[in-house]
Amino acid sequence: MNKFWSLFLTRFTWLTLLIASALSANAQPANPQVLLETPMGNIQVELYLDKAPLSAGDFLAYVEQGLFDNQLGFHRVVRPDNDHGTPVISVIQAGLKDGAQRRAPIAHETTEQTGLKHLDGTLSIARAAPGTGGGSDFFICVGDQPALDFGAKRNPDGQGFAAFGRVVSGMEVVRKINALQGVSTGQDDYVDGQILAEPVSITKAYLLRQ
């Protein structure tokens, strides 16, 4: 084989590998990441669209429609020193302001279905009965919280909560929010001492282009 053909085949092989790599990357797109801006610092999250498409997709829809901007805030902090549930957990919870636009509730995606776990920094859907929650009301785990997984005891129905993402940057902000002092509302003993007098507002939420 002469040098010309040898060089041609080498370059052709490299070109083929590059094309195959690009096609593979396009076939398996990275999970989207969203930035949540707050007065206490930014929180960057990854959404598991591949494993929890309903929950992650609903959260992303709120972001892309601009429904979170200045309408959403972290309003509840739960820690071992103020928790009234069993087993004890540690999370911060966010929700839309009263009167804010909401999408319809979504079906409950259990961690048994998705294979996800409530680990440190996990985002999950807050809910009452299964199928009553959505991306507008979610919480972030502070430390591993296996009591929130499917089959665990935190929720009497045993269905657990729908994990759909994780914090990739800004857990120090999450922990600062979790350390804030809650107050008593005098309305519900279950959340006594957990409600923030001034919610930590999410001033802007947007998709990071990858």
Automatic annotation (TrEMBL):
<protein>
    <recommendedName>
        <fullName>peptidylprolyl isomerase</fullName>
        <ecNumber>5.2.1.8</ecNumber>
    </recommendedName>
</protein>
<feature type="signal peptide">
    <location>
        <begin position="1"/>
        <end position="27"/>
    </location>
</feature>
<dbReference type="InterPro" id="IPR044665">
    <property type="entry name" value="E_coli_cyclophilin_A-like"/>
</dbReference>
<keyword id="KW-0732">Signal</keyword>
<keyword id="KW-0413">Isomerase</keyword>
<dbReference type="InterPro" id="IPR002130">
    <property type="entry name" value="Cyclophilin-type_PPIase_dom"/>
</dbReference>
<dbReference type="Pfam" id="PF00160">
    <property type="entry name" value="Pro_isomerase"/>
</dbReference>
<keyword id="KW-0697">Rotamase</keyword>
<dbReference type="GO" id="GO:0016853">
    <property type="term" value="F:isomerase activity"/>
</dbReference>
<dbReference type="InterPro" id="IPR029000">
    <property type="entry name" value="Cyclophilin-like_dom_sf"/>
</dbReference>
<feature type="domain" description="PPIase cyclophilin-type">
    <location>
        <begin position="37"/>
        <end position="207"/>
    </location>
</feature>
